[in-house]
Design a protein that fits this description.
heterodimer; A: mainly beta; B: mainly beta; about 0% helix
């Protein structure tokens, strides 16, 4: 158990819908990272927040957005969902502001878009 | 940006043998190189990491070596056991402050046979 929690574990929704994924970092960690893992794409970095502020951006679509709240939990919002958005979404947390701090992954949310 | 190539994509070894997975990176500014193990349906777990000021690091049966000149790093697993069967990901990141992000390799599926 890494100490990072994610909800829900599974999500099934239809194309065009909007969903929200939630992540709580390990106690003491200030950074939250979001990753997408699909079968043919491996682990793709989406976005990072540090202490409430956006810190780094990766290959995140405009239909996706995220935020980190004062209690440091983070939410990833996915809208106008397409079949290709079906994937495992992981969040990870670390203590420092940059990617060269150890990152600990949550159990993931499996999103299925039908 | 950083590009990480990982080989082989699949690796089958007999129990007790050694396994070696190799990664190359493109950005000479990269200075942090973690390795993650992901069992089927589970989260990626950090198993070992190395920073650019060190050439080798060992933790029990696992070791990582780094060659900065050639821009490659390798994971070595000795005395393999069935529980080592998983997908292994390498990653790299340059320390570039606000823009730093982990770039992952495409993964190696390791199968340890009895």
């Amino acid at each position: 158990d890494s100490g990072v929690t994610q909800t829900p574990k599974h999500l099934i929704t239809a194309t065009g819908q909007r969903v929200t994924l939630r992540c709580s970092p390990r106690s003491g960690d200030l950074s939250v990272y979001w990753y997408q893992q699909s079968l043919d794409q491996g682990l793709q970095f989406l976005i990072q927040y540090y202490n409430g502020e956006e810190r780094a951006k990766g290959n995140i679509l405009e239909r996706f957005s995220a935020q980190q709240f004062p209690d440091l939990h983070s939410e990833l919002n996915l809208s106008s969902l397409e079949l290709g958005d079906s994937a495992l979404y992981f969040c990870a947390s670390s203590v420092g502001p940059d990617a060269n701090y150890e990152q600990y992954f949550g159990p993931g949310t499996r999103l299925t878009v039908t | 940006g950083e590009n990480v190539e990982q080989h082989p994509s699949t690796l089958s070894v007999q129990e007790g043998d050694s396994a070696v997975i190799k990664c190359t990176y493109s950005d000479s500014a990269s200075n942090y190189f973690p390795w993650y193990k992901q069992e089927l349906g589970k989260r990626p777990q950090l198993i070992i990491d190395i920073r650019s000021n060190v050439g080798e690091k060992k933790d029990q049966r696992i070791a990582v070596t780094l060659n900065k000149t050639a821009k490659h790093f390798s994971l070595h697993i000795t005395e393999t056991q069935p529980e080592d069967s998983a997908v292994y990901f390498c990653a790299a990141t340059p320390f570039t402050g606000t823009a730093s992000k982990l770039t992952f390799g495409t993964g190696t599926r390791l199968q340890v046979t009895l």
